[in-house]
Amino acid sequence: MSRRTVFIPYSPKTILNKFKRADPTFWVRYTVYPYIGCQHGCEFCYCREEKFYPYEDVNDFAYVIKVKQNAPQLLRRALQRAPVDVVGTGDYQALERKFKISRRLLEVCLELGFPIFDLERSPLVLRDLDLLQQINLKARATVAFSIIAAPGSPAYDRVCQLERLAPPSAKRFAAMQRLAEAGILTGTVCMPVLPGLCDTPENLDSVARWTAEHGGRFMVFGGLTLANQQREWFLRVLQEHMPDLVDFYQRMYPPGSYGPAGDWWLRTACLAREACERHGIQDMMPRPLIPGDKRLLNKRVVEALSQKMHVMDLDRRSQSSIWACRKAAWAIEDMEQDLGLVYRVMGRKGLESIPQVGPRLAGEVERLIETLTPVREI
User: Fold this and answer.
1) Strand, coil or helix: what is 207?
2) In what side-by-side order are the strands of the sheet with 64-68?
3) Nearest to residue 83, comparing CAs of 286, 284, 299, 341?
4) Cα 342 from Cα 254, distance rounded (Å)
């Protein structure tokens, strides 16, 4: 017998999650979520992990949805005191048609001039295309779709079974095309790639091809994580519906692990990168650049350093070199001053004086400044 979904309105005390700096995957500095629980009910969702899960019974995840009814008011109050940066928001599961809290959160971001990043499994986001276009003109908007198997790929039918009530990926790709035609930066978040199902060269190539053909500019890759009760849940699901995969997943995710064993991530990330190169898209999301941002050059240099670190990681470069680059990127991200002004006034020595940059990386930063800045501005 099917179970009815229960919606529980409540009023949290806070709504905005803040990070010290923007992460280089989606470039968000803040996140805000309007609902707890998800009607899509994807069997592999990390939100069933204990640290994310607010319910005693893991079976409630797709059937007991908490609605943060005061979320827009809390967000307005929090953003009025926050530096302008990218807000990760939106949650267009079916109940959004009734409660419209995701739309109201977008209205707050538009009002206060904050850029947004929205990761979706539903074309319902197109209902708010008018707001997304206005935000994009004023501050920037990015909408990505979580898609791990493209129609026609060998993994597609089994993935659909695990995604339960999530709309078919063909509809997500169609929504991607509408957003691209409207001038919104869009692409695919190929997460979580399921080992043994979605990690084949054929499937990754198919997702990259569909992304490019529907106006997407990037395909970001990420693996499946399984911890504590989410691991137990997923193994039970496999035992019931795909028993041929149970032994494989028990080896890939031994008790106490989090990510897949061995060098799976690196091998699969390289396959994803090759697929993106074949179809002319990026394997990292471009950083949204806010019009009129006085620290625009700083952010572009940080983006370039992040791309460099990504390549170094896939090329198996030393972790010490990667960490040195990461610390330099963090230092530039944290600067209050315009990096271009520091360089124009003090030259190479000014770059060397930045903490974590020093003489070793100053040359790389100088090259990036000269590459990213028009000659007349240097």
Assistant:
1) helix
2) 6-10, 64-68, 35-36
3) 299
4) 50
pTM of the model: 0.93
Tens of pLDDT, residues 175-228: 999 999 999 999 999 999 999 999 999 999 999 999 999 999 999 999 999 988
If we measure between CA atoms, which residue out of 66, 78, 65, 57 comes closest to residue 15? 78
What is d(CA 65, CA 36) in angstroms, rounded to the nearest whole number? Answer: 6
Instruction: Indicate the pLDDT class of residue 50, thresholds 50, 70 and 90.
Output: confident
DSSP labels, 111-143:
HHT--EEEEES-GGGGGGHHHHHHHHHHT-EEE
Do 90 and 116 form a contact (C-beta atoms < 8 A)?
A: yes
- Residue 356 burial (CB count, 10 A): 17
Best CA proximity match to 129, nearest among 157, 156, 110? 110
CA distance 23 to 128: 26
Closest of 221, 177, 226 to residue 203, by C-alpha = 221
pLDDT at 378: 34
What CATH architecture applies to the domain 6-279?
Answer: Alpha-Beta Horseshoe (3.80)
Share of the chain above pLDDT 70, in %: 98
Q: Which pair of structure tokens corresponds to residue 3? A: 């179970």
Domain boundaries, the chain: 6-279, 296-377
First and final C-alpha spacing in the chain: 69
pLDDT at 56 > cutoff 90: no
Q: How confident is the model at residue 374 (pLDDT cuts 50, 70, 90)?
A: low
The two domains 6-279 and 296-377 share their CATH topology (first three levels equal): no
Architecture of domain 296-377 in this structure: Orthogonal Bundle (1.10)
